[in-house]
Amino acid sequence: MIIFKYILFYITLGIILSIDAFMACMAYGLSHQKKYFLILTPLAVGTCHILFPMLAITLYNQLHVDNYGIGKYLSSTIFVFLGLANLSKENSQKANPIFSLIGVLLLAAAVSIDSFFVGISICIHKYSLIGCFIFGIVSFLSTILSLSLAKFLYQKVNTDFDIIVGLLFIIFGILIFFNIF
């Protein structure tokens, strides 16, 4: 019975961790409508939400370090970079696939940084590895929902959202930098 308490705790924590992924992927999905983005993005985000807390648990158990400040600045910088990249696009339909793949991986890393620190905080709990997988599943499902909603909105409005998405990512970066988001 105790495992169910932990599973419920980890699902709740996974939903909280996925809020930023949902919002960021919604913005990203409004400017990237190619099919492989709709498949690759949830896989990348879900995988990062599994691996980052596992890495944190391992590092914490080995080194007992707290890298919150580094993660905050890294996540903030990645979001600002993604925002500037969206603002500087000449034509979203002709985006370089390699740069787009890097963009998906950077997005996944940026929205998963918080799960690294949650990994440190749960390393003393029982079943913490189960928690890592739950975080990944919840964020994967959240990202699919977000991208599906973005695809629906994109089809209804049928406009170029690159400037709006770029500004949103820069705002996310600033909010993270100042501990507001």
Produce a short descriptive summary.
The chain is mostly helical and 181 residues long. It has helices spanning 2-31, 35-63, 68-87, 97-122, 128-157, 162-177.
Could you characterize what this model shows?
The chain is 83% helix and 0% strand. It contains six helices and no strands. Helix 1 (2-31) crosses helix 6 (162-177) and helix 3 (68-87) packs antiparallel against helix 6 (162-177). The radius of gyration is 17 Å and the shape is globular.
The gross shape turns out to be globular
Q: Helical element count?
A: 6
**Class from helix and strand fractions:** mainly alpha
Q: Gyration radius, to the nearest Å? A: 17 Å
Oligomer: single chain
Largest sheet: none
- Which regions are unreliable across 5 or more consecutive residues at pLDDT < 50? none
Q: Strand percentage, roughly?
A: under 5%
Fraction of residues in H or I helices = over 70%
Q: Could you tell me the number of beta strands? A: 0
Order of helices and strands: HHHHHH
Summed over residues and divided by their number, the pLDDT gives a mean of 79
User: N-to-C terminal Cα separation, in Å?
Assistant: 35 Å
